[in-house]
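Sample A.
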Amino acid sequence: MKSFHVRLLAGIALLTSGCGTGGMVGSSVDSVSAAPEPAAGPRPTVAVSSFNIAAPKAEKEVGNGLQAMLTMALLRTQCCQVLETDQDGSSSADYLVTGALTEFEPSVGGVGASDYGSGVLAGFMQEVGLQHANADAAHVGIDIRLVAQSTREIRNATLVRGVAVDIESLQFSDDSLGSGLEVYSNTPMEAAVRDAIEKAAVLIAKSAEPTG
C-alpha cells in the first residue's frame, strides 16, 4: 500500500427504478458499505466495456484505463466472475458494465461549493463540507450502468462522484493507474479516481445476481 496526503470526500448519487413512476428516482449518499461476502453458490459473470469519455478535460485513452481499473476492483470483491470483453466490446457474460466519464477536473484548488452556483455538484460539495476549499482538489463523475445481457434490462444506473483534497493521508491499493491516468499519479486526481472506481465496484457487486 502506498500513502497519499489527501482527505477523501466522495459522494454517490444512486439512480434506481421507482415503483409505479416509470422513470428514475435519485438519492444521494456519501459512502457505501463493504462488498457482500461471496455467495456459496454460483457467481454471476460480469464484463466491463471501455468507458465513453464525455468530459472535455479527459483524453479518450482514459476510457480504457478506467475499464482496466474497474475490472481489477471487481475481481477484488470476489462476488462475481469477471470476463474479458471481445475486441468489438461484446461479451458472453451475464452482465455488461458500461460507463461514461462525465466529469473530470484534475484541480479545482481554492474553490468550493459557492463557486459552482446551485448545481448538483455544488450541493454535493456542500454536503461533504467543501463550502470554501483552501487546498488543491480534484473531482470525477462516472456514470455506471449494469445491463443484464439476456433481457437488456438496466439493473442499476449509478452516478459515482469522487472528490479529493490534499490535506490528510490515505491508503491506496497497489494496482497501477489505468492507461491515460499515469500523469495524475500521487495527485488528488488519483485519489478521486480510485475512490470512485472502488465504490462503483461495490455497487455493481451488490446489484449483479446469478442468472442461472
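Sample B, a different protein:
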Amino acid sequence: MPGPAEPAPTLLTKSMRIETPMPYDPRIVQPMREELTRLGVKELRTVAEVDSVLGDSRGTMLVFVNSVCGCAAGSARPGLSLALQHATKPQQVTTVFAGQDLDATARARQYFSDYAPSSPSIALFRDGEVVHFVHRHMIEGRTPQQIAKDLTDAFDKYCATVEKL
C-alpha cells in the first residue's frame, strides 16, 4: 500500500500568493469522479477522448467540468444528479475534471471557448453549438434543486425535440 502523499511543492506567484501546482492527488478526487460515473456520466480523461466525443456534433450533449471546490460538492454535482432524473435529458452526458485531467479539461474548454474558464461549469450542446452554459458564479450560493431546475428547463428547451441517434 502506498504511503502518505508527498505534499505538493508550493510556488510564489507574481501576485505573491502561494499556490499549489495541479493536478490534485488522484486519491483525493476519486470519490468526486465516482459521484458522477455512478450516474452513468462518461469521463473524458484524455485529449483524444474529448475530441472523439465532442468532435461528433450530432444531437445533444452535456459537458460537466468537475472540480474539488465546495460549490461542486454542495450544489453542482447534486444538482446534476437531480437533473438527470428528469424525463428529458441530453443524449450524452460527459465530464472532465479540472485540476486533475488538465489536458482533457483544456481541450474540452476549447469547444466552449466563448465562455471564460470556470470550474465547476456545465455546457449543453445541440448539434455542436453551445445552447446553455452554467458558470461557477451561477452555481455558488444556489441549492442543488435550483441548479437542477435550471438544467431541466434547458433540457426541455433544447433536448426534447432531438431524436435519439
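Observation for Sample B: The longest strand covers residues 60-66.
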